[in-house]
Amino acid sequence: MRTEGIDAVFLETHNWGKQARFLQELGFEVEFETGHNSGRFRHGDGPSVFVAEVPPTQDPRTLLVLKVADTQDRPGRDVEIVTEFEQTHYGTQEMTVRDPDGRQWNLQAPGKE
């Protein structure tokens, strides 16, 4: 499976407002807010950063989201699949894989039509 590079960084936070201000101070601009303590930021032509607030009882995660052309291209045997491609509520299909050190990566393909 070949990816097309980093599509986005997904960050969870305990405080949406503070994280949003932090990113804006670093030059990121808000592309959109969802209205429920999450939204997407961008800085130039680089990957987007999607931030979502989680409860204080949950450890915040950071995920890299790699872009793939379609779901038919499968990872090789050296890639551990955590979850198969699934349709998301926001219009893409996502698969989760684990690297040799235990980190999870999201693979994102276009949604089903």
TrEMBL record:
Write down the SUPFAM superfamilies for this protein, in alphabetical order. Glyoxalase/Bleomycin resistance protein/Dihydroxybiphenyl dioxygenase
Disordered: region residues: 90-113
Give the highest taxon in the source lineage.
Answer: Bacteria
What this protein is called in its record is VOC family protein
The species is Nocardia xishanensis
